[in-house]
Structure formats: C-alpha cells, structure tokens
Batch of 2 targets.
Target 1
Amino acid sequence: MSARENILGRIRTSLRRADGDGVAERVRAHLGAHALSPRPQITGDLGAHFREKALALSTSIADVADVHGVPSAVAAYLSLNQLPMGAVCWSALAGLDWVSHGVVMEARPARESDKVGVTEVFCAIAETGTLMTLSGADTPPVTSLLPETHIAVLHASQIVPAMEEAWQHLREMPDYPPRAVNFISGPSRTADIEQTLTFGAHGPYRVHVILVHS
Amino acid sequence: MQLTSHQFKARSREKLADANLQGALKKLQGNFVKGRADRVAELENFPAIRDAAAAIRARTLDHLDLYLEEFERNATARGAVVHWAGTTEDVNRIVCELAAKYDVKKAVKSKSMVSEECALNDALEAAGVQVVETDLGEYILQLAKEAPSHIVAPVVHKSKDQVSDLFADKHHLPRKTGIPELCKEAREQLRPHFVSADMGISGANFIIAETGSTLIVTNEGNGRMVTTLPRVHVAITGIEKVVPTLEDLSTLIRLLPRHGTGQTITNYISVTTGPRRAGDTDGPEHFHIILLDGGRTRLLGSDMQDMLRCIRCGACMNHCPVYQSVGGHAYGWVYPGPMGSILTPTYVGLENALDLPNASTLCNQCGVVCPVKIPLPDLMRKLREKQFEQGLKPKQETWGLTLWRWTAQRPRIYAMLTQIAARVLAVMGGSDKLIYNLPCGGGWTDGRDMPAPQGRTFRELYKASRITSTSRP
Ligand code: SF4
C-alpha cells in the first residue's frame, strides 16, 4: 500500500468513517457555501479606515485626483527620500507620462539591482490596511519584492472591507486561482534580534501607496 | 531535531541560572503577552470569532480525509505534485530525491517547524545539498549550530552581543553592534543565496482545500523569496493544516498573528497555487507539496484529538509561567511550552518525554489564551494518567503514593505517624521555626525554606479545643 492509502486509511479508521454516512455530501456543501463566520464590522468610510490601518503599519500614502497625477507623485516621493529617479513598473503603468516628470521608467520585472518597483494592486483591505496583489504575466511579484522601495498605485474604488470580500472578487477572475496571491502589509520587518523592530529584513524598506481618487 | 526531553529537569536548572535568557524571557512577556491582549481587545466580537475558529478546526479534523483529498485534487489540477509521507524519514527521502531529480546544489529555506521535526537540513547536507536558512532567527541559529527555542521567535534566547560576535566570526566582516546594521548585514549575505538557489523549501501555515493552495505568513519577506525565485519549490507541512475554504482561512488569519506576535496581520501572507503559468516571468517551474503524518493520525479519534486544532501561534508558551522561567530549549524538542508538552510525548512517545506533561502548574493560562480553545491542561492531565497506567511514573513516586494510600486508609496509624512527624519537624525548625533542608524533600527546600509545624497535629488541637469548650460551665 502506498503512503497515501496508509495515511488516509489510518484517518478513516480513527474517525470510524463509514461509506454512505452522508459526510461526503456535507463536506461538499461546506466547500460550496463559502459561509462567513463572525467577523469585525468595518463601517463608515472604507478609505479612511484603510488609511488609518496602513499608516499604522508604516506604509506611507499620497493622494492624487486621477491616474495622470501618479508620475508627479512618484517623482515627488523619490526626490523627497533622495532615491534614484529610475524605476521599474508593471506594464499597465508604462503608458503614463513619466518622462516629463523626470522619472526613467522601465516596464519589466524587477531584477536584483533595481532600487524602486512600481506596481498596481488587485485590491486593498480596509480592516488591516493591506494591499493584495496577484501574480501574472504582466504583474510579476518580484517587482514588489526585490527593490528596496515599493510604490503601489491603488484606486479608492479598489478598497474592500475585509479579506472575505477580496476572495469574492478573486473568484470572478478568469485565471482563478492565480499562482500567487500576495498580501502586503507595510515594509518588510523583523524583530528576531532582542525583539527590536527593524525594517527592511528581506523585502522593501519602504512601501508607499499612491491613492487615486477618481 | 535530536530529542533531549528526558533532560528537562537538568536543563531547566541550567536555564534558570542563565541571566541573559531570563532577561530575554521577561521581554517576551512584555511584547507578546501585552501585544496579544491589545490586539484581541480591538475585536469587539472576539469571543464569537474565537468560537468560530475552534469550530472550523474541529470540523475539518472530523472530516480530515475528505478535505485532504479535495486539497490534493485541486493542487494537482493546478500542476502541483502532492506527496504523502508517513514518517519524518519519508519527508527527508522525498526531498532528497527531488533534489537529485532537479540537480539541486543549493536550497534556501523559510522557517518550517515540520522540517525541524524531520531534521531535514542534516539529511540534505548528507546528500550534498547546501541548505541556507533565510529567516533571520533561523539563519542565526544555523550559523551558531543551535536549535530554536520558540516557534515564532526562534532566537529569543540570544543577545545582540552574541549575534554581533557570531556574524563577525562567520562573515569575516567588521563587527557591527547596532541591530539595524546586523539585520542589513544578514540581508546582504542572504540576497545572493536567494538569487542563486535551485530549490526553495517552505512550510505551510495552512493548506486550502477548495483551491489546492499552500499559505505562509512571514514578516521578513523571505517566505516570498523562497516561493518566488528558485526553480523548484517544495512546501512541507502536517496533514492537520488543511482548511476548507478561503472564508474559513480568513477567520484563522484574523487570530494567528494577533496571538503570535501581537500584530493585527503579518507583513506578508503568501498564497501559492501550483507552479508558474504560461507567460509568467517568475515563480517556480516545479511545485511539490509534502504532507506529513508523523504521529498525527495517532491523535485522531483519541482523547488527544483536540491538540490537532493547533495553529502554532505560540501564545500558550508566551503565557506559560514554566516556559517564561526556563525558555524553550529545556523542553528538548521542536515544540516547547504547553503545546510541546502534549505534542512531544504524543509524536515521539510518552516514555521519551516523561517530565513534559508534568512541567505545568495546570494554571490554565494556556487554555485561556489559545485561539482555537484547546483544553491544554486537560490534555496534560490525561497524559499524566496515561503515564501512570503504563507504569511510566518514577518508582519513587509510585511507591510514595502507594505508601501514602496504605496509611491514609488506616486512621490510627495515620494519626500516630503524623503526630510523630509534627513533633520531629517542630524540633528541626529550631528557634526560627524554619526548616532549611528537608530530608527526602531537598527539591522543595532547595528553593525556599519550609515553615516548621507547631508540634501538634490539627486533630490533636481540635480534640483539645473540644474538650476545653465542652468542659466550660
Ligand atoms: S496550542 Fe493554542 S495557543 Fe498553543 S500554539 Fe497551538 S494554537 Fe497557539
């Protein structure tokens, strides 16, 4: 007998499982129902909730009226933090007018040597101030991971109350489930040495959200 | 990991005398205990969420076979390969075979307690594969050749100065003294490994039946690196980690970081489903998932089944007065604290960890804080009973209790013996009425003095007072 049969057999014996006891149907029903459990109620302005929680996680936020404001906001952030004016971005952002704002933008996946990565997000979660990104041919996860600075473009309409709503949206995606779903809650950190919080463990030192309101 | 649980008492004594460790453990109480309390207070319906989390885990275990099959079906449909491992040796064999198959020279690992159960690093190194731990704490331990002492904060027992010395010695760089500089140095040392490794090895905090995904929570981002950059990803986890739906997962994720580190959410939660897709420029080409039994099915259907609900948050150890005093190494295996006092004897044998179920005051702090409501003290009590039934209790203890039972059932003899004892002890107490060294009870008087009795037993005094009160006019 294979290890698989052995293990499943042991489980069935231990649980005194019998055929036709209706358990399989109940399990299938549970899997299909996607029932919600009790959870905190996120009421009021989702944007304000997201902002408060994201700031608490050491994410910084800049507001712009529409997507055309993104390049100038990126340029302002880079110069404020004395970062190089070169970055890599996801392809959907390549069409913005980076040149007139002095940003040398390359639309390709980030490499080891890149200092700044600019991405979009799939959605953001108000409950915890979290960004949710999906992997894909045009949305490589490395861009939010390898550079020391991650800038994320988020539309206000993408903010959902909690993880449960995010899954609902995800289920409507054509390639569901994607290879990777990454939830990002602020800059990478560690407290392994003497429980002292330190930023920039392996991922970005800085996470900056550009919140597009239109 | 080598099992040394039988040395619990000796190691505890050592750890109590370790000033460095005692300081670190104090800090842990301040951070993790207070952090959990604050984060839980933020949830106005916390009791309902906790009940739901416990129910999700319990229901899944009751139908474990079916959810595992569902997981396997969905993971396979997305191109992952699912392996089943009866024992920890099987895990090591499977990983070594995969390393050979894919011509792996170097593997990077994110933290996995299951791989510690297996002592996987030793097996891979014996097979000629270089293994690099990438969680900062685990990396420090790998350099120092030490075992983790906490499941969430593995290197809690080490001071910054010890890390400074270790890095200077192993990296051959000028000695750094600031914690940010030490972290940066580790980052710079580990980056090249992430980029050049052939295999990424991770654990899984949960596996999700409805999607066939594995999930890891990390703060450092090393988990994302390990599951994104190398061409092969191997995720190793226990069969009990399956969660039915993404909604069920959301409930558990709401509690795990709150109870673990006092965070509302960890920095990264990475859910991975299958290998890279057509058109993807990153992600592993091959994705293997190993599901370990390793003693878990023995708990199913037994009076220990509740223990399998554990989501490895570490709250029980953070709140345990025994863990707070002796730290994790004294427990002698992968899992310390109350959860370890149950998992170690049930996974590796009651006879190999006799002290652990007794290393508790049964104060129930652990039971009160456990996010999935595991009745930890009850389980420890059951293990103590099993020890007795199987004749595993130390001879001295069994004889002592037998003798006590014999006398306790014979009131006259009992009264006589206690009268003698009360008088002898009163004399031993001397003028300050304290006994500094109790014969046959050295363990008790080593740490404190015993107040000496007054010289007469309660029954004698009671009898005397009744005589005086009834003889009153
Ligand atoms: S037993 Fe409960 S408190 Fe302890 S690690 Fe497991 S889930 Fe956390």
Target 2
Amino acid sequence: MDVLSPYKEATDVILEAGGEPLKLCYQCGLCTGICPWNLVRSFLVRRIMHAAQLGAIDFGSEDIWTCVTCRACVQRCPRGVEIIDVMRALRRAVASMGIGVVPDALRISAKNIAGVGNPLGEAPEKRNDWAKDLKVKNFASGTEILYFPCCVPSYDPDVKTIARSTATIFNKLKIDYGLIGTEAKCCGESIRKAGHEDTFQSLAQNNINLFTSNGVKTVVVSSPHCYHTFKNEYPELGSKFEVIHTTQYLASLIEQGKLKLSKEINKKVIYSDPCYLGRHNSVYDEPRKVLQSIPGLELIEFPDAREEGLCCGGGGGRIWMDTPKGERFSDIRVEQAVAKGADIIALACPYCFLNYRDSVLSMGKAETMQVKDIAELVAEAI
Amino acid sequence: MEEIKTGVYICHCGLNIAGTVNVEEVARYAGTLPNVVVARDYRYMCSDPGQALIKDDIKNLGLNRVVVASCSPRMHEPTFRRACQDAGLNPYLFEHANIREHCSWVHDDRQIATEKAKDLVRAAVRRVFYNEPLEIKERPLNPNVLVVGGGIAGIQAALDIANGEHRVYLVEKEPAIGGHMAQLDRTFPTLDCSECILTPKMTEVGQHPFITLLAYSEVEEVAGSVGNFKVRVKKKARYVDEEKCTGCGVCEEKCPWKVDSEYEVGMGKRGVVYVPFAQAIPHVATIDKERCVYFLKGKCRACEKFCDAKAIDFEQKDEIVELEVGSIILTTGYDVFDSRRIPQYGYGRYDNVLTGLEFERMTCAAGPTGGKVLLKDGRQPESVAIIHCVGSRDENYHEYCSRVCCMYALKYAHLIKENTQAEVYQMYIDMRCFGEGFEEFYRRVCDEGVNFIRGKVAKVTDVALTEGEQGKLAVIAEDTLLGGIIRVPVDMVILCPALEARFGAEDVAKLFTINRRADGFFMERHVKLDPVATATEGVYIAGCCEGPKDIPDTVAQASAAAAKALSVISRGRVVIEPTTAQVNEVLCQACGRCEEICDFHAPKVISKDGLRVSSVDAALCKGCGACAVVCPTGAMSVRHSTREQINGMVEALLEV
Ligand SMILES: Cc1cc2nc3c(=O)[nH]c(=O)nc-3n(C[C@H](O)[C@H](O)[C@H](O)COP(=O)(O)OP(=O)(O)OC[C@H]3O[C@@H](n4cnc5c(N)ncnc54)[C@H](O)[C@@H]3O)c2cc1C
Ligand code: SF4
Ligand code: SF4
C-alpha cells in the first residue's frame, strides 16, 4: 500500500514556480464542481490543489496538462485562489526542471515557437502573406493602428479568413492601419500557460522591442489570447501600448457612426464567449452589440453564456494537444447550438474557430451549421 | 360556604385540539358537571377575545372558579391566571387541563381522545372546587452579590456589578485570580497579548472599593434563596499575613525547596512559598502547606528569616467568613482534558508531545523558555504537527466540540511560523472558525503556508519506517481529502485537548442547588432564551463553567449574568411564590422526616412556645411536595396541591 508523506521539496518547487496561491485553498471542491472537464471525464481540481500543497503531486500524470485555463473555477473560488497560476506552476516545474514529461504535441509547438516564432512551424517571413493581395501597408511611425492578427489566422489557410475579413473592413472604412514586420512573433500567452516561461519572456521582449521601436500606440488584435497577454502581462515587462480587440473596435466604429451595416443576414446566430475575452477580461457586450447591428440577424444565446460560457477546449496550450472524441467541449457546444436552432455559431477567437470548425466537420454538421468569426459576418454585412 | 360557580372553557387551538377531540361535545359534557354554570368552546382561548370570554363571564355570571382545557400550563397558565386576576378573581382559583400535549397530540382515535378530554376536564373541575385563594408576597432583598471563581468571567461580572456601586464578594480558590486566561500567551484572533488585556482588569478588581476579594478561599455552605442568601466562606490560611506582605518574592527566592509550578503547567519551578506569577492579584505570597518542609518535618522556616516585612506567620489559621448576598454568579471555569487518556498520542511518553497550555507557556516571553519554541534538547523544531480534537467530538471521551481548539491551533501555527522556520501541519477533522474575525484569521494562516491535513490522527509513534522518520515522531492519519494513509514526520506534536467540566463541578452544583448537563457542565435554565440563569432563582452562571467557549463569549456571558443580578437588585424586592409547604402544628409530631428529605433545607424542627414543631421557610421552599409525602401524620401539606385537591382529581378520574 502506498503511504503518503508530505514532500516539502516538491511543494517548494511548485511555490517557486508561482504556485503561491495554492496555500489559500481550503479544499471546498467548488472548482472541481465547476470545471467543464467534469462534463466529459473526471478531473479533480481540488485534489490537485491538495496534492500540490503537500508536494504529493504525480508530475508524470496527464492531469498536469489537462486544465484549459478557462477561469470558470477561479471566477467562483471562495478563497480567491488563482488556480490557473497553480496549474501553470505545475507545468513550469515539469517543463523547466525536467521532472516528468511534456506531452509530445506540446513539445513540438513549443519548439516551433522558440525556433521560428509561431506554433505552426511556418517561416517567419511568410507571416504577412495572408494580406498579399489586400494592399495593407506596413506599419510605420505615425500609423494610427497596428493590426496584429495572431499566428493562427496569419498562417492557417482555413483561418486566414479572420484576418482577411478584418483587413477588408478596415480598407473599406479607410482606417489608418498597418501590419508590423515579419520579425513579430507569437504573443506567447498559451505557451506561458503551458509552462514555458523562458520562451514567453523572450517572445514578449521581442515584441515589446519591435512595437516600441516602431512607435506603436494602439494594437487591434483578433485573438483574445493576444489581447490578454498584451493587456495584462506585457505591461509588467515594460510595454506601454493600448490594446483593443476587433469586436471592441468594431463596436466603437458602429457607435461613432463610421461603420454602417446595410446588407441583411437573415440567420439565427449564436455567440460563444471566448474565455479570454469574457471571463479573463470581462468583455461580454461589445461582440453582442456588433452582431445585433447586422440587419436581419437574430442573436440567440447558449444555455451557458457570458460568465458561465463553456470553453471551446483550446486554452492553456490545449489547442496544440489532441483531445479524444467524446471529451471535446466544442462538440457539446455544437450540439447545444443545433438544439437551439442556430444557423451560425459566431466566434471572436481563432482558437475557438479551429475547435468549432473541427467539431462541425467531425460531427457531420458542416452542411447545416456554419462557424464564423464576427469579423467575417461584419465583412459580409457591410 | 359560598356557592361554587365554575366556568369551563375548551380551546380548539386551531385544529391542534379540535382536529382530534370533539371540542363541542366536551363543552356540552362539561356543562353537565356539578358546580359548572357555564361551559364554552372557542377557537383560541389565549387570544384577546378568548380571554375576554372568561373575564365577561366572571363579571356577568359571578364565576368564582375557572377551568381552561387547552395546551400545557407551561405555555399559558400565566395568561389565564392574569385574565382571572384582571376580572377580580384570585389567580389560584384557576385550573388548567392539558388536552393538547396530554391528549390530542398523542392520540389518533377521535372517540377515545374525546373521552379522555372529558376525563381530564372532569378532574380539573373537581380539583378547582377545592382551590383556595392564595396571596403573593414580596420581600426586600440584599443587593450584595457573590461571584465564585476569579477567571475572566468572574472578573468581568464582578467589575460590571461593582461599577454600579453594589458590593461584590469575589471568591477564588487559588492564591491569585486570573484563571486560565492568565496562562495564555496571545489570544486569537487578534493576537492581543493575554497579559496586557487581563492585567488592567485584575488590578481594577484588586483596588475596587466595591469589590471584596477573597482569594485562596472556598464556599462551604449556602443557605437561603434569591434576595437573601447566607454564605459561609473558608479563607484558607496562607501562612503569610496579607496585610504585611509586599509580594517582594524574597521568601520564594530563599526557599530551598522547589516544586513544579502549576502556573507554568509543570514546565517551570516555584518555591514552596511562592507568588504564583509576576502580575498576581492579590500580590502576596502563599506557603504550600502540603509540601512545606517545616510543616512536614518541623524544621526549616528559611523564608521567615529573610522576610523584612515580617509577614510569614506559621501560626495562621483558616478563617470563616459569613456573607449575606442577594444573588450569586458562578464562574468556576473548566479543566483541560488529560491527554494521557489517549495513550496513542504519546503524551507523557514522548518528550516533544505537548499540550496546548504547555505551548502557551512556551511562547510566552515571560515563560520557561523565554518565549522560544524549543524541543526538549534545546533545538528548534523543523516541523510541528498540531492535533485537533483530542478528547473532543469523540464519543469515547467527550461528544461535544470544545469550540476554541481550532482557533488556538491556528494561533499556534502562526506563532510557530513567526518564531521558527518550521513546517506546520494542522491535523483536523473540520475547521470551525465561526466567530468575529476567525475565518479571516484562518485565511491568513493558510496564506502563511501552513499545511492542513484533514483526518483524525490515529497514532503518534517514534518507530521510524523510513529514513525521513529517523529521530522524529511520525503522525499517522488518513488524509481524507486524498484518500490515503499519510505519515508526517515531525519534531514536535502539540495536542489540543478538550475543555471539560471542572473536577468537583458536581459538588459545586450541589452546593448551589443547580443542575448539570450530561456533559458535566452547569445547566442553563433555557438553552436559547435563558442562557445564564439556572434552575435556582438568583443563581447565575457564566463562562466556561457553562460549557467550552472563548474569551469574547465568556465576557459576554459574564456581563449578561451581571445584568441579570443588577436587574434583581434594581427591582429591590423578590416575589415569594405562595405554593409552598405548610405545617399543621396540631398534627405535627416533630419527627423531622420533612427536614431530612428536603433538598432545599426549607423545613426545620424548631421550638415554639415550648413545643417542638416543624416550620417551613417559605423563602427556601420550592413547593416540590417531598415533605408532604413523607410526613406520617399528614401535618405537612403543600398549598395549591393539597390532599383534597389531589384526591379530588383522582376520585374524579376513577368515576365513570
Ligand atoms: C490552550 C488554550 C488556549 C486558549 N486560547 C484562547 C485564545 O487565544 N482566545 C480565546 O478567546 N480563548 C482562548 N482559550 C479559552 C479561554 O481559556 C477561556 O475562554 C477562558 O479562560 C474562560 O474563562 P473562565 O473565567 O470561564 O474560566 P477559567 O479561566 O477556568 O477561570 C475559572 C476560575 O475559577 C476558579 N475556581 C474554580 N472552581 C472554583 C471554586 N469552586 N471556588 C472558587 N473558585 C473556583 C479557578 O481557580 C479559576 O480562577 C484557550 C483555552 C485553552 C485551553
Ligand atoms: S474552489 Fe478554491 S478553495 Fe475550493 S477547492 Fe478549489 S481552489 Fe480550493
Ligand atoms: S481553469 Fe477551467 S479547465 Fe482549468 S481547472 Fe479551472 S475550470 Fe478546469
């Protein structure tokens, strides 16, 4: 029989890696009750917290890599435990100190990011190729806005549409914007959550230097992940620019009367809150405002929306890992959208886009259920 | 004799009675009974219109007896007595039949329940026939108050009353006041230094013009009742003249014999002649006669030679002090459970297994280690386990929760973290942090990095299973949150033993004629609505003698008890219930059996005009009737429960 014994050295490693908040956990179990994983399989968050407190953690366990950092638990934890910080600390302990193993898929993405600055392993000089035919200028000192689309829409042929739709809208409205040079790298948000702190630090430093030397004052981003790290993490490392998510930017243009949507989209549209826009940054209203400004469009809601919104399954580095069929949150969401009679699932995050698109395809629903970024819908309605 | 005119009122109590008993039929039946001039049923007799029925009938029909058949007299006898009184009828001419608790609530069969209700009403009607008007008397009271026990509860109660300029006698059995609080280092959750907040109060007691402090004293006898207690106190000989002693401590220094100090719970020594602690009030020395070599062997008297004040007095005798007081507040506190009773925790066997109180002394700057947390061998511990619920919440020892241990366990964790680098493990079943600022303190201690392991400790052992356990104590439990056995190797174990009823609480309860609960603590009159009163009028309880509690609750109760006593004082008179025993002096043979049986010392055989007869002190008599039962001649009877009344009821019940 296994006998436990507190292992202080392990606890110290976790604390050192940023796991301090775990000390506050009083084992109520609310996090486990709230965590979306328990919709599809058992994931005992509370137990992980306690094992970490005692240093009795199995660093080889799959559990270390399970959390999607959706913040559902943190938002409700009665002791204010930053559970995601603890999960990140466990991953850091594995990744940087070599106790336990980093899952293969994650290792490859990490290597790509560290090597070529994007998780897809694509050539840095191709970063802005998506815009080749769209006549987008390069950002130069004095340009009002830097548009930063995120690595996925920059490279993934199926997701490019997000970036292209955004550029199309901006072009039509004659917005003074540009793209930064191909020295730009992944924002680093997810690789940081996946425990690769050093990689994050160097990515962030690279981007901050690049933006600062180009005189960037305002960045518009398509990904809530870029948004989150630019807004909340980069400033600690010296960044000073303003960050706006496309949905926020579009909403403000509509409000100012600069963006007028005239073409009708006579569809039922259901909006899925991205965790990093919603729970992590409390942006709930602007995406909805934009959708409601489209003539003919009927906005409907998921049974769990806004603060309760279900994660797509792609946060915390999970976007690079394989989630077996039957455990995919986006599958649950597609079912819900179908049940609600939606025609289109509207999104505001490239990771969501990847996951929902996969779900719709693998569930054989591509004929009846469309997956679109809000920028795409706006581009259609303009 | 005047004609007896009885009114009978049957209450529906909504459906509580009427649902099971045919109340109309009972009322009709009651109307046929002898001497009944009116019988009614009504939805709620206790309501204003219900009472008005009675009052109007008394006035209009000239009723001189009233029977209400309704709920328990505990509920509404006072209501209906008052109604009678308001209408000019002596309240003792009212009789209550309980057809709810005794009938409708315990029967299902309507027929049988209705018959039983009739029987009960018939008995009450017969009884009331023999009722006599009785007079309620009042007498003046003595405003002095006796407080027994000089812990924080007694200190607080004494000060509250004395500040109202009433005389307080504070009796403390130990040489100094302060109780357990004087032994504590810092107090949760604010971490105030116990000494700093207690000493000013102790000094105030010592100097208060309205407080007479009788330390090193015990109550020997209590007689009388609320308003007029007579109390005999034995002031034990200290063999030191309190007036002369300056508390300089030279005697203790020079005393060649050292024994374990009670104040330091055995972790420090004191002289056989000693001042218990630096801030002791009264600040005078006491010779521990049991252990004094002069008293044992007839030689020594070292102290006497060195005392400049000439205060040592080997001839001193115990002194008896007679007090007269109107109210009594008992604040005799608690004892700490003896952890040796749970041998598997190793207390008394392993050097570094301590109790909470021992740890209090250890962290106290003035204590035996100068405030340092140290192992027996002088090292600092690298790891400490704190074991909760030692003897509490355990049917093998005490079923109840001791209420303070979770919090002082957190306090210890904090103090250990503050003073050492040690890892601290709380081994708990539930964390109960319910008071003001408690949960916040719990959070703070979590944040300090203390480990919490949920599981009742099974065993503490020095048998090492692994290298890490070598030279340590392994604390074994199930970590119920991980679902596995956990062994925590530590250098020091602190036990949190239960707070239990004082040794001797039974005798104190007897002395003051109050009750104890099954757990041994003194019983309050009503757990919710009368928490500091007792079964005996004028005797109040406060602090841990009533059950485990922390200092804030203790002080609140002490002030509550003081307020009760002050309220009696401010009324200035006490009511004497007329339902007491009475002697028919013609029949009395002065056999004294009544005197023997009475728990309250009410009857006494006295000489009256040259004749020996029993005489009852109405102030002491509770009207229980024990004497009336043992009296062989029938001389003794209890007013309002006379032989005629009881026999009348029995006869009525047996007729059918
Ligand atoms: C280890 C430990 C730590 C604690 N820490 C805290 C804390 O941090 N904060 C907190 O709020 N509470 C704490 N408590 C609880 C606290 O000790 C009690 O709430 C408080 O002392 C109760 O006071 P008391 O006056 O009712 O009883 P006691 O302190 O027991 O005082 C009773 C007094 O009556 C005297 N006496 C007894 N019998 C007689 C008699 N027959 N005649 C005359 N005198 C008599 C005794 O000698 C004593 O002086 C702790 C308790 C323990 C065991
Ligand atoms: S919700 Fe917070 S306090 Fe409760 S178990 Fe989870 S982390 Fe711990
Ligand atoms: S952040 Fe989301 S996935 Fe991670 S533990 Fe909390 S609820 Fe579960």
